[in-house]
Amino acid sequence: MAQIAFASNRAGGHFEIFVMHPDGSELRQLTSTLTGITNTWPRWSPNGEWIAFQSNVSGAFQIYAIRPDGSDLSQITDSGINQFPAWAPDGTRLAVRRGVDVYVIDATGSSEPVRLTTIGPLNQMPSWSPDGRQIAFMSTREQPGNYASVFLMNADGSGQINLTPKMDSGIGTWSSRAPAWSPNGKYIYFTGVRPGMPTEQIYVMDADGSNQTLLTAAGVNAEATVRHVQPPAITRITATPNVLWPRTEKVVRVSVDVGISDDSDPAPACQLTNVTSNETIVGTAWQVTGALTVDLLAERFGFGTGRIYTVTVTCTNSSELSSTASVRVTVPHDQRQ
């Protein structure tokens, strides 16, 4: 069952890390520290086996990791100030604020951190794109006033651009921070303050900074975290029939059945997206007739071992994440094959 990781000061008045089921049941406290210690910013690893978080239990804030059952607590960083961990999609690295810049560190802490930003005064709150190619982050480098803005850079630190430049004439507060990617990588959510909107609210924009849209407008709303969603898992794919015999040189309707598992969408949409053949065919040997049906010609050349059709299916969930799988349908050279 899915779980939610969060920070709460319900135990002793200071913040600890907790997990619970989405319905609020099975609440479990993962950290237990002294009064005055702060444990916050929990972030799930892509495989769900770890939760990274920041804590000042050793003095300055450092990055820690813990299992969802509270076991195997480990300290990943041990020097300077390290905050705001963000897992890379491959689960082997974390982007963090280290001092006043964004660094990438090994998830085990076994290699030297790689510095990605150099222009201050402050860079923090990194967020990896789902494909791992880019990192959104907050920076206060912009003038006038060193206002907080959401920047985007390549995963190696190159190509840093401001996605939320100040648009007013200097009257009123303008800030943007805490970026979070949508699962499909098309959008970035962030916390912002704008003139005429004096409290922090949640905004969304296209990944290039265009089409900035206010999503909330009452109270204080901050630091949205978008659920990490995986593409659907195709667990089984079969074709019926999967052998076309006898060789009639007529079309045969083939149906494809797909087994699928997805923890975010109960009914991902599956569609037949490609058909190929190992034999070079002149003319048309197949026609897609439905989402998961195709007419295949029961024909093969007189030489060789027979024809192999490869039928590919793509399944897409509501977050626009897709997986593909293929199944073979054969036309044997003869009845013994």
What do these coordinates show?
- The structure is a single chain.
- This protein has strands at 4-8, 16-20, 28-29, 39-44, 51-55, 62-66, 74-75, 82-87, 93-98, 101-106, 114-115, 123-128, 134-142, 147-154, 161-162, 175-181, 187-194, 197-206, 213-214, 233-240, 251-261, 269-277, 286-290, 293-297, 306-316, 322-332.
- With 337 residues, it is an all-beta fold.
- The strands form 7 sheets. A 4-stranded antiparallel beta sheet has the order 4-5-6-7, with no helix packed on it. Strands 8-9-10-11 form a 4-stranded antiparallel beta sheet, with no helix packed on it.
- The relative contact order is 0.08.
- The model has no long low-confidence stretch (mean pLDDT 89).
The Rg value, from CA coordinates, equals 26 Å
List segments where confidence is low: pLDDT < 50 over at least 5 consecutive residues: none
Envelope shape: elongated
The SSE order reads EEEEEEEEEEEEEEEEEEEEEEEEEE
Q: How many helix segments?
A: 0
- From the N-terminal CA to the C-terminal CA, the straight-line distance is 46 Å
Indicate the CATH topology of the largest domain. Neuraminidase
Number of domain modules? 2
**What is the chains' assembly state?**
single chain
Architecture (CATH level 2) name of the largest domain: 6 Propeller
The average pLDDT score comes to 89
Placed side by side, the strands forming the largest sheet appear as 4-5-6-7
